[in-house]
Design a protein that fits this description.
heterodimer, A: mainly beta, four-stranded antiparallel beta sheet, 11 strands, about 55% strand, B: mainly beta, six-stranded mixed beta sheet, five-stranded antiparallel beta sheet, about 0% helix
Chain lengths: ~110, ~110
């Protein structure tokens, strides 16, 4: 079974703090993704990576950065958290190629006060 | 206009009912289509792919209408365990590996 894990299920941070969200997958997948999910807006892609040290912007990259130093790990960084970044953050991974099934982690619910 | 649009519901149906959801997409270049299922407070999981000729998996049938740019999901003989949010997903033939999600349709099957 593919397993995608995320470092925290719930996180509360203050405005201006630097926030790290970690994602690890154990199936040697090349592609990894970060989404945020908000009511009525669905899942929106923040960043994705198709190889170690490679990254591409998704639809809403502003205010975020990512790091992929190892194949199994993909980190999302909020340099200076703001209240509009309060959301559910979902990490996903998939095999290389365009149309492969994505496997999601359980999500991190981030609240920025 | 959103790239992928779904009726948010909720669709409240009795056990045993047949229910259908539609999803429209705006980009005619979209190439691949999927339905994902998301249970309350859980992550999305692939339910089924949608093929041009239509496909069936047990009680679930997915269909694609390219001319009208919509996909559908039909659930027959609804079970309580079918209660979830169903996410419509499309991809484009641009080499982009990411998926574009609809905001989901919530189904509540009642006893």
């Amino acid at each position: 079974d593919v397993k995608v894990t995320q470092s925290s299920r719930y996180l509360v941070k203050r405005t201006g703090e630097k926030v790290f969200l970690e994602c690890v997958q154990d199936m040697d997948h090349e592609n990894m993704f970060w989404y945020r999910q908000d009511p009525g807006l669905g899942l929106r892609l923040i960043y994705f990576s198709y190889d170690v040290k490679m990254k591409e912007k998704g639809d809403i990259p502003e205010g975020y950065s990512v790091s992929r130093e190892k194949k199994e790990r993909f980190s999302l960084i909020l340099e200076s958290a703001s209240t509009n970044q309060t959301s559910m953050y979902l990490c996903a991974s998939s095999l290389s190629g365009t149309y492969n099934e994505q496997f999601f982690g359980p999500g991190t619910r981030l609240t920025v006060l | 206009r959103k790239e992928v649009e779904q009726d948010p519901g909720p669709f409240n149906v009795p056990e045993g009912a047949t229910v259908a959801f539609n999803c429209t997409y705006s980009n005619s270049a979209s190439q691949s289509f999927f339905w994902y299922r998301q249970d309350c407070r859980k992550e999305p999981k692939l339910l089924m792919s949608v093929y041009s000729s239509g496909n069936e998996d047990g009680r679930f049938t997915a269909q694609l209408n390219r001319a009208s740019q919509y996909i559908s999901l039909l659930i027959r003989d609804s079970k309580l365990s079918d209660s979830a949010t169903y996410l419509c997903v499309v991809t484009e033939d641009t080499g982009r590996r990411a998926l574009t999600f609809g905001s989901g349709t919530r189904l509540q099957v009642q006893p």
